[in-house]
Design goal:
Strand order of the largest sheet of chain B: 1-2
Number of strands of chain A: 9
Largest interface: B-C, 40 and 45 residues
Helix content of chain A: 10-25%
Largest sheet of chain B: 2 strands, antiparallel
Shape of chain B: globular
Chains: A alpha/beta (172), B mainly alpha (385), C alpha+beta (373)
Strand content of chain B: under 5%
Structural class of chain A: alpha/beta
Number of domains of chain B: 2
Order of helices and strands of chain B: HHHHEEHHHHHHHHHH
Number of helices of chain A: 4
Number of helices of chain B: 14
Distance between the termini of chain B: 71 Å
Shape of chain A: elongated
Number of strands of chain B: 2
Radius of gyration of chain B: 23 Å
Structural class of chain B: mainly alpha
Oligomer: heterotrimer
Helix content of chain B: 55-70%
Strand content of chain A: 25-35%
């Protein structure tokens, strides 16, 4: 069996120069690193033999208040251990290094995150919209996203009938 | 009849023209009906193979389904895509139709019943069917659609490569019969299976198999249906066709099936030869001929609904690397065999029955396998509420 | 005449309405004749913004949407989501419910693999095996309809168990079906899987090396086809899989090169047999008892995030949930097997024929709604 999250945290902590935080509360523990050191930490995770994270399972982001928290889920087939890397980006500088050179699966995952959140992945070979049309305006999965009332000449304003239904309760 | 008409003062050429017209009309009508019935035949067989029923609503057992389909297709709008080469686009269905209908001139219907017994019948047939290639190529090029173009190109490459093994596969039979005319080829065989050209000796057997495989490819049938491979090229060369033009393609496709069946029957499977005792009942030979033809058609349809498709390079490999050398061997072998046969005629009496016996054994093995399958499958299951 | 002839690649638009792209996927092909020089998948035609919808429905209310994520195996999609929420909240579900989940999940896996095998056959031009596969799948649909009333989008599993108990004669009918099915599957295999033409089409084609498969994060049968023996049911067992006895078929390169299309195909064909084995075991051991854990009507998972993977027919489906202790998910991401399988196509498809691309897509078992979500 591979390393536990705490052991991986120790490794990263010894390697990194800047602040690394182990977030153990919640169901999945995660390791939070800074965007500045992100690229080197990821390379370290991929290439050091004790860790050998050979696959990137998932890459996503969550819009929390005024930051965008990015998540990378790594897994190692050789050691059978996994880790969640977390990195918070401020909304005025939504850019981070791309990891496509380390994991090919990052290509589409990053395109999807770019498409839905508008994160600029530096060094990505082909950063275009993936799911939405090329001419789509805005990034739908941000919490402040407003559904456009007009797209490509098609009217999208809610009809009277749909207005008459009760809107879903927001908070209980 | 000619003399009678001339005695009435009608010009001789006019009379000939009228007679020709009547025969041609009969042929084409018969053709349309046959290919229509073949569509029904194929759909019913496919349905049976796929645990469903198939068309059974229009007419008794759905026999008139093809009429309904044809009426529907005639009602459809005739579309010509923008940017298409209109002349080629319009001409192509007719060329395909000519290529498939012209062989009917030399296709026999029974012993001695034939529209025109050309002394180069087989040669004529091989060459005239090549018109279909021109038609499909034109359709592919003229449609202004890349999928059609690919289909047309595949079709050209395929049919041109398979013409050669098919023609070479016919040669041993021609050597055996010593004739190029259809009637001559049929007369050289007898009524019994061991007198058929296919079971004469190992070489004619090889030739028969090569011919059959090759004609599947020429008729665009699975496993060689690359020009219209549905899952790859949408519909191949006829993607852009609609309405009547599309119907013509379908007519030609199934008429082609009949041509393959009839040619195989006439050249390899004894045609409409009857035993001595039944010779006076000439109509039986028509019946026998049609029976054999439909059996071959059944086998082709059966293969279509069973086998996957080849890839274009595998298809070419098969033609040039295997079928062509084999057909040369068959041709050469048949020539040598005939030399030996000339010296020792008794060999002729032995090889035929032996080949037929081998064939019967293979058949027996096949039925044995089917029986096992059938017994196992009879476990019924009902999961419905 | 000196014609100004020049050669260029032909750009072909394959899809979104193409018979063998398995749903609405578009490929922009640059070809040299029939040989593909570059292939670019264009996805998103079936994008229904399920992840955005999730943010406005309740935790339980999202279960029907998971059906639509992958409607070919919606039972497993239900399962993946419910398992994720249960893990997040620490809900223990009753044993009978676990067994029922395995039974319906594996039945659904069989039907999904039947579709995968059938469409791969149909892409190769063999229509009859496809119809035979659908015929067998129809029995499974009947069985599942008896369980939950739906034939395609089941909405059967709930957070904390399953919606209702098995009907009275379900076990007997299922055993009856399995007895029939084992032979029927063999027949289908004889018809296509061991057919020489079919093997020649699939063998040594679209080879994905184990390193590539891992780097591209291929999952499920596609990964195991490349020879990587990894199955979540064995390696990170969830539910009751650790108690059950089954094998993991792995590609061996039996007809060509390790990781070719035939390996991926045969892994699926063999997995069907393992699923039959699993269902038989579960039917024999099925305990009595509750089918639903005590779960409140309004659930609010604790603050935090979780990423749970489940072995669905198209590989592990990962659900990333982010909860802020409210009645609906704050963020939900679905990472599916088809998504990564799709992303490897541009690299693998170079130099193939168009006909081979069709085979490659068929062997990867890409399902459009799962790619787009």
């Amino acid at each position: 069996m591979g390393l536990s999250v705490a052991e991986i945290f120790d490794h990263i902590n010894r390697f990194a120069n800047q602040e690394v935080i182990l977030k153990e509360e919640g169901p999945d523990p995660s390791i939070s690193i800074t965007a500045y050191e992100f690229s080197s930490v990821m390379r370290y995770l991929k290439e050091v033999r004790e860790m050998d994270f050979d696959t990137l399972m998932s890459q996503t982001a969550v819009h929390i208040d005024d930051t965008l928290v990015m998540y990378w889920h790594l897994f190692s087939y050789s050691h059978r251990h996994k880790v969640v890397i977390e990195c918070a980006l401020p909304f005025d500088d939504l850019s981070i290094d791309s990891v496509t050179t380390l994991w090919k699966s990052a290509d589409w995952l990053e395109r999807e995150t770019f498409d839905l959140f508008g994160v600029d992945f530096k060094g990505h070979p082909d950063l275009r919209r993936l799911l939405l049309p090329e001419d789509w305006v805005g990034y739908p999965l941000r919490k402040d996203y407003q559904t456009p009332m007009l797209y490509g000449g098609m009217d999208n304003t809610p009809s009277e009938i749909s207005q008459s239904f009760k809107p879903p309760k927001k908070e209980r | 009849m000619e003399a009678f008409a001339v005695s009435l003062g009608v010009h001789i050429y006019l009379v000939k023209a009228i007679i020709m017209f009547i025969i041609a009309a009969l042929s084409v009508t018969f053709m349309a009906v046959i290919s229509g019935l073949t569509t029904w035949f194929e759909r019913r067989i496919a349905g049976r193979m796929q645990s469903r029923i198939g068309p059974n609503r229009v007419g008794p057992q759905g026999l008139l389904q093809f009429v309904a389909d044809a009426v529907k297709l005639f009602m459809k709008e005739d579309l010509i895509p923008k940017g298409a080469d209109r002349l080629l686009f319009k001409m192509s269905p007719y060329l395909c139709m000519i290529g498939v209908f012209a062989p009917f001139v030399v296709l026999p219907w029974g012993m001695g019943i034939i529209a025109a017994d050309l002394n180069v019948g087989v040669l004529y047939l091989i060459s005239i069917t090549a018109l279909v290639v021109v038609g499909t190529l034109m359709a592919g090029w003229g449609s202004n659609n890349k999928w059609s173009l690919l289909g047309g190109m595949r079709s050209a490459a395929q049919i041109v490569s398979y013409e050669i093994p098919v023609a070479m596969g016919l040669l041993p039979s021609i050597l055996f019969a010593g004739s190029l005319s259809m009637i001559g080829l049929m007369n050289a065989q007898g009524w019994a299976p061991w007198q058929w050209s296919a079971f004469q000796n190992p070489f004619t057997m090889i030739a028969f198999l090569i011919f059959f495989t090759g004609s599947l490819a020429e008729g665009n049938r699975v496993p060689f249906d690359l020009p219209e491979a549905e899952s790859e090229l949408v519909s191949g060369f006829n993607t852009e066709y609609s309405g009547f033009r599309f119907a013509v393609y379908f007519l030609a496709e199934w008429a082609n099936l009949y041509v393959i069946g009839a040619l195989t029957t006439a050249v390899f499977l004894g045609g409409g030869n009857l035993p001595e005792a039944l010779q006076p009942y000439w109509y039986l030979s028509i019946f026998l001929f049609l029976l054999k033809t439909f059996f071959i058609m059944f086998v082709i349809i059966w293969l279509r609904w069973t086998l996957p498709r080849f890839r274009i390079d595998q298809l070419m490999d098969l033609s040039w690397k295997y079928l062509l050398p084999l057909s040369f061997i068959a041709f050469f072998g048949q020539a040598v065999y005939m030399l030996i046969d000339h010296q020792f005629p008794v060999i002729d009496m032995v090889t035929g029955p032996i080949m037929f016996l081998i064939f019967l054994l293979v058949l027996l093995k096949f039925f044995y396998r089917v029986a096992i399958n059938f017994r196992e499958q009879n476990k019924t299951v009902n999961t419905r509420a | 005449m000196t014609a100004d002839l020049k050669t260029s690649y032909m750009t072909i638009n394959m899809g979104p309405q193409h018979p063998s792209t398995h749903g609405v996927i578009r490929f922009i092909l640059k070809t040299n004749g029939e040989i593909i020089y570059h292939c670019e998948p264009d996805i998103g035609y079936l994008h229904r913004s399920i992840e955005k919808i999730a943010e406005s429905v309740t935790w339980q209310g999202f279960v029907p949407y998971t059906d639509r994520v992958d409607y070919v195996c919606s039972m497993n999609a239900n399962w993946a989501y419910c398992l994720a929420v249960e893990k997040m909240m620490g809900i223990e579900i009753p044993e009978r419910a676990e067994y029922i989940r395995v039974i319906v999940g594996e039945l659904n896996r069989i039907s999904s693999h039947l579709i995968a095998i059938g469409t791969a056959d149909m892409d190769m031009g063999a229509v009859t095996p496809f119809v035979h596969c659908l015929r067998e799948r129809e029995y499974i649909n009947d069985l599942l309809e008896r369980v939950c009333g739906a034939r395609l989008t089941y909405n059967y599993m709930t957070i904390g168990g399953v919606a209702n108990d098995l009907p009275a004669d379900f076990i007997q009918k299922t055993v009856e079906f399995l007895n029939h099915f084992e032979f029927a599957m063999e027949q289908i295999n004889r018809l296509v899987t061991y057919n020489r033409i079919f093997i020649n089409r699939f063998a040594s084609l679209g080879v994905i090396t184990p390193e590539q498969a891992i780097n591209y994060n291929l999952v499920g049968p596609n990964l195991r086809g490349s020879g990587v023996n990894y199955d979540l049911r064995k390696d990170e067992p969830y539910s009751i899989y650790s108690k059950l006895d089954f094998d993991i078929p792995v590609g061996t390169g039996s007809e060509g090169i390790l990781g070719d299309c035939y390996d991926r195909y045969i892994v699926r064909a063999k997995e069907i047999k393992e699923s039959v084995k699993l269902i038989r075991q579960c039917l024999n051991q099925l305990p009595s008892g509750e089918i639903q854990a005590k779960v409140k009507n309004v659930i609010k998972p604790p603050q935090g995030h979780i990423y749970v993977r489940t072995e669905t027919p198209r590989g592990d489906t990962g659900y990333f949930l982010y909860s802020n202790n409210k009645t609906s998910p704050y963020r939900l991401k679905i990472r599916t097997g088809s998504f990564t399988a799709m992303s490897i196509i541009p690299e693998i498809s170079q130099g193939l024929f168009i006909a081979d691309l069709v085979a490659l897509i068929g062997s990867l078992d890409v399902v459009a709604p799962e790619v787009d979500r």
